[in-house]
Amino acid sequence: MNDRELMFLPAHRQRQMIVDGEISSVEMTEASLRRIAELEPQLHAFITLDQEGALSSARQADERLAAGDEAGVLHGVPLVVKDLEVTEGLRTTLGSTFFKDWVPDYDSVVVERLRATGAVILGKTNTPEFGNREETFSNVAPTCNNPWDTARMPGGSSGGTAAAIASGMCSIGTGSDGGGSVRLPASFCGIYGHKPTHGRIPRFGGQAKPAYNSAGTSGPMSNDVRDSAVLSQALSGFDPRDPGSVKTPVPDYLARLEDGIAGMRIGTTMTLGISDVNADVAAAVEDSWPAFGELGANVEPIDIRFDPIPKEAWWTLWTAGQVAMYGHLADERPEDLMPYTLEMIEHGRTLSGADVAVALRNVQNLQLQLHQLFDEYDLILAPTNAATAWPHLQPPEEIGPGAIQGEMAGISYGAIPFTMIFNSSFNPAASIPCGFGDNGMPVGLQIVGGYDDDATVFRASRAFEQARPWTGTRPTVS
User: Fold this and answer.
1) Does domain 3-467 sit in CATH 3.90.1300.10?
2) 259 Cβ contact list (under 8 Å, min separation 6)
3) Helix 311-332 to helix 353-376 angle, to the nearest 10 degrees?
4) Using CA atoms, how far apart are residues 443 and 333, in angstroms rounded to an integer?
5) Helix (H, G, I), strand (E, B) or coil at 77
6) What number of H helices and E strands is found in the chain?
7) Domain ranges in the chain?
8) pTM of this structure
9) Distance CA 182, CA 175 (A)
10) Which residues are catalytic?
11) Which of the listed residues 135, 137, 228, 311 has the most CB atoms within 10 Å of its CB?
């Protein structure tokens, strides 16, 4: 088996090969590093590659196996970590020149739990500054490219992780999602990405000053649904250092993963009542829906409306949070912040306490509306985004029949209107590949579940993955 074949294997299969002695963790990691050496010059998926540290961790994984220690759920598997997660002894830039030389002396809770799985951390993947764009560019690393077409962006803000996995540098990694930052790059790069129920994966760790976490969560990204379920299980669970983490026991995401979706009630919507979608995206998404009926689910269109449109509350709370976390940097050296971050901070400073209170009220009403909707349905299917990946910094000017609306700090909201709603509502949501657009770029289907029902999202994703396998076609850069 060559390096390419190895790296496109699911992570759980890689782990089993290591445990069974078919290959060592060192050999698996060396294969990954050779792939990175070959492909990274075209993709710029990494901000920091830790070759020495990865090989040291791989040797330790092999030694623990030889000593008879119990193997972790990702024992010896090489993976990547988005550079918004703090890593002890490994440079953590947060995509910002303010932290370009920062080497933390502690791990985020996500990295602590990653290490506990026995995984091998290859390095830190590319992200826009503080995760603040739907594209992946900053002043600390070259712009990240999409493996399907390097002239196009991979999405953001977890673009580096998506590019690494889609190209077969590794099989699995972590992203974070505050408005779509796991699901959007998963969709644009043709991989699987899961945003968990808000609070299931604790967010302790990072340089940000304390602020109310209205939207953000870490989440798994992979070429295989089971891999993401395994990783999400390992990362989930209460941590007292995060007051927003859910304290109840974590459901078992794997117990019924293979049980199918027969009898489930599934609603479909092309617009979520908030936006148009391009015809090629709509065609691929609509073509995916019959698969769920063929698998035994009861599938029907739903008419959903939101008043007000959820993006305004999300934008208010997001930009207020930017002031709380990074406003001091704008005071110290505004010229060293990326323009998109500075614009968010400037907008946040125009808000009043009443503005934030209204946004919080609207978010609570949204959560109530979604709770009621999921009393009726097990899942909702919608597009992940309204357009396929566009050339760098050239978002579409039109979506569907009309001109695009709603730029925010340079972000083309009209092209990505369908993800941030579920950050505000706290519902679990995944993006799974469902086809290709007219330009040959991947299209993502968003599968949304009821609050704390990640298990059903994973189960439906797995059923769809088996019914409509997507991994037979590989990107140009792979």
Assistant:
1) yes
2) 459
3) 140
4) 40
5) coil
6) 14, 15
7) 3-467
8) 0.98
9) 6
10) 82, 157, 181
11) 228
